[in-house]
Write a structure and sequence with these properties.
alpha/beta, eight-stranded parallel beta barrel, 15 helices, 18% strand
């Protein structure tokens, strides 16, 4: 009996994830992608458009009134705070990057990059600013008509997202049962109506749809950490399981609504993927926690769409969701690097976003660890698990420099890693850099700069960073030339 237990323990120990060093990527190039590969940039409505009556707008003004501001690193933002929100001009909050004014010239910039695709999101609050509306606001519809016209003019295939964190403020009024937000009984139907209109209006112009952006980020930051609206801390991930289930119902309803309007459309979600690794290889609890966190964050939601049943890794009963199974035509992944999982006791852990003692590890301006060597294995993992084509709907880095050598290196080395997956037969069909222009970065405020183009928030002026030329070279050559690779391989 004891011998058997020891063997089981040794087997478990060998299967647990391990921390690994960041190694170089081999080869001299060229690294070429299949014909028709999508090269694009990604954006989101609330982060670049003028303020709409949504939950994030309300949160920003509330935090400003309370003068609640903090450091810019997402992992260090206390609940209810937004970095620098009390000191930036009010016009920044109202206008963000003023994409409303710059739609045509911003998408001309995307076309000049050699891009053939563009990801954006449609503001639910912009189309339906009131709960009692039977038809969307004409001005909101006209804005997205205009955006799609600009995509067409510049040869950009549109990829549209329906919910990128921000939802209408009216959704947060209590219903007759005292529920608000994603817990209201009518939220699924409201979202279905929104999706159905979008499919009916733009289905002939948009082939690729994303119903939800990073739903597990919304669940974790909104209901566990409290740094996103509704800024709640419910006492553990298992307490937020009902929110995940409700988001799955919303996804399923939107999927079927979009398919009803255009059966050949491609519908999925954008799923945030990190490489979660133990902070200490010598710690059994670090390694076990890394395994559990990875499964809960990276697999539970996607598995539920695949099977029709949500089975939470970190607690809470299984939930069967009618109409959910198989409502995923592609796998959309957002990849930003590695996180470390460090236990402070057998039952408690913390997420560490960067380890200064790890040789060769770079840190972005928001303190995230860059790790392109984990990118290709993650692409292969999800491709083999779900047997669907993959689109990288976001990947990028916060780097404020105009001569942004770090971003240039990030781009080249991540595309190089993606080429490895393609060479192994993984069906990756597109890559969208986050982001085309600088944007409001949620609780981290305006300081993080992810854009290929720098934005002056006072004037709205755009200025190209050095990475513009690098991404143009990649897109126009449909990959990485030997000359470009030699510049950034080390």
């Amino acid at each position: 009996m004891l011998c058997g237990a020891v063997l089981v323990g040794i087997d478990l120990w060998s299967r647990l994830p391990r921390r690994h060093a960041i190694a170089g990527l081999p080869g001299d190039g060229p690294f070429v992608f299949p014909a028709g590969f999508q090269w694009g940039t990604a954006t989101a409505d609330h982060q670049i458009e003028r303020a709409q009556p949504d939950d994030w707008t309300a949160f920003e003004w509330r935090a400003r009134a309370d003068r609640l501001q903090t450091q810019t690193r997402l992992g260090m933002v206390p609940p209810g705070h937004i970095a620098d929100i009390a000191t930036v001009p009010a016009s920044w909050i109202e206008n963000k990057a003023d994409f409303d004014t710059h739609v045509e010239d911003d998408l001309a910039r995307a076309g000049d990059l050699g891009n053939n695709a563009f990801r954006f999101s449609i503001s639910w609050a912009r189309l339906f600013p009131r709960a009692d509306m039977s038809a969307p606001d004409p001005a909101g519809v006209a804005f997205y008509d205009r955006l799609l016209d600009a995509c067409e003019k510049n040869g950009l295939e549109p990829s549209a997202t329906l919910l990128h964190f921000a939802s209408p403020q009216w959704l947060w009024e209590k219903d007759t049962k005292g529920q608000r937000g994603y817990e209201r009984d009518d939220v699924v139907e409201h979202f279905r109506v929104f999706a159905a209109f979008c499919g009916r209006r733009w289905g002939r112009r948009i082939q690729q749809w994303c119903t939800l952006n990073e739903p597990m980020v919304l669940v974790y930051f909104g209901y566990v950490e409290g740094v996103f609206p509704p800024n709640e801390r419910r006492g553990g991930p298992q307490k937020a399981t009902p929110i995940a289930a409700q988001l799955l119902r919303m996804h399923a309803a939107a999927y079927h609504a979009l398919k009803a309007e255009r059966p050949d459309s491609q519908v999925g979600i954008a799923h945030h993927v990190r490489h979660f690794i133990p902070y200490r290889n010598s710690s059994f609890f670090d390694r076990l926690a890394a395994l559990l966190v990875d499964r809960a964050f990276a697999l539970d939601f996607m598995d539920a769409i695949h099977t029709g049943e949500l089975k939470p890794t970190l607690g809470g009963g299984a939930v069967v969701i009618p109409g959910l199974r198989g409502t995923m035509d592609y796998v959309g992944l957002n990849f930003y690097g590695r996180f470390y999982v460090k236990t402070t006791s057998p039952a408690k852990f913390e997420i560490v976003s960067h380890d200064k003692d790890e040789p060769g590890e770079e840190e972005s301006d928001v303190g995230w660890a860059v790790d392109e060597t984990s990118f290709s294995p993650q692409l292969e993992r999800f491709a083999l698990r779900y047997r669907l084509p993959i689109y990288v709907l976001e990947s990028g880095i916060a780097n404020d420099a105009v001569d942004d050598h770090q971003r240039q290196r990030f781009l080249v080395r991540h595309v190089r890693a993606m080429a490895d997956a393609v060479a192994r037969g993984i069906d990756v069909r597109g890559f969208y850099y986050w982001s085309l222009i600088d944007n409001f970065e949620w609780a981290a405020g305006f300081s993080p700069r992810f854009g290929l183009y720098q934005v002056d928030y006072d004037t709205g002026a755009r200025s190209p960073r050095g990475s513009v030329d690098v991404y143009r070279d990649i897109a126009r050559h449909n990959g990485i030339t030997p000359l470009l690779w030699q510049r950034f391989k080390r």
